[in-house]
Specification:
Number of helices: 3
Bound molecules: 20alpha-hydroxy-20-(5-methylhexyl)cholesterol
Number of strands: 8
Structural class: alpha+beta
Order of helices and strands: EHHEEEEEEEH
Strand content: 35-45%
Largest sheet: 8 strands, antiparallel
């Protein structure tokens, strides 16, 4: 896998969690900018072991010329039970893109770690991996991996840039941070 984001932000861990994993204005604007449409989400629901789960569905717009322009996607997120409010949050997400070539072979695994640093600082780490449900032919596998990495890199670079913008707005407006 790869580590796409690894940086300290000037905002609390709670704030970062709220921006990324609730129906925040930030995430709605980001989805608009990425042309991710029709997003629906189940509420966070407690599991037997104490972790929380939710499922998102949306349609993504794809810029890769090798692939059709749109695909529906399902994202299953798990928030770990050790994720103590305010200290750290670990969210694992599995993203299935249903309408791209070879979609039944692979999915994307993302791990978001939001670590409390101080009252107004947290570290965000995003680790990403392209995973296979069945083994494709070698050439196909490298094709999928290569095209997935380039899309993911673009997405997370954009997300990091937007978070830095949000951080700047928060620290300008806040005063007490
Ligand atoms: C989520 C991984 C692969 C996919 C795409 C497919 C290429 C098909 C390969 C063929 C278009 C928001 C991506 C990047 C679409 C976007 C997905 C996003 C960024 C040629 C064999 C959508 C995170 C996420 C996970 C997986 C990404 C797809 O929050 O290359």
């Amino acid at each position: 896998g790869r580590l796409y984001v690894n940086r300290v932000f000037h905002m609390s861990a709670d704030k970062m969690f709220e921006l990324l994993f609730s129906d925040s204005l930030f995430i709605r604007r980001f989805m608009d900018a990425r042309k991710i449409t029709g997003a629906t989400s189940t509420p966070w629901q407690r599991e037997g072991g104490g972790s929380m789960k939710r499922t998102l569905k949306y349609t993504i717009t794809i810029t890769n010329p090798l692939v059709g322009k749109f695909s529906t996607a399902t994202e299953m997120q798990t928030l770990y039970k050790n994720s103590h409010e305010g200290q750290y949050y670990i969210v694992d997400s599995e993203v299935y893109t249903h309408d791209v070539p070879y979609h039944d072979y692979f999915y994307t695994f993302n791990r978001f770690c939001i670590i409390h640093n101080s009252k107004h600082k947290c570290r965000l780490r995003v680790y990403t991996d392209v995973r296979y449900k069945k083994q494709p032919w070698g050439l196909v596998k490298s094709f999928i991996t290569k095209n997935s990495w380039s899309g993911l890199e673009d997405y997370f670079r954009h997300l990091e840039a937007e978070l830095l913008e949000e951080e700047a707005e928060l620290t300008q407006g806040g005063g007490d941070s």
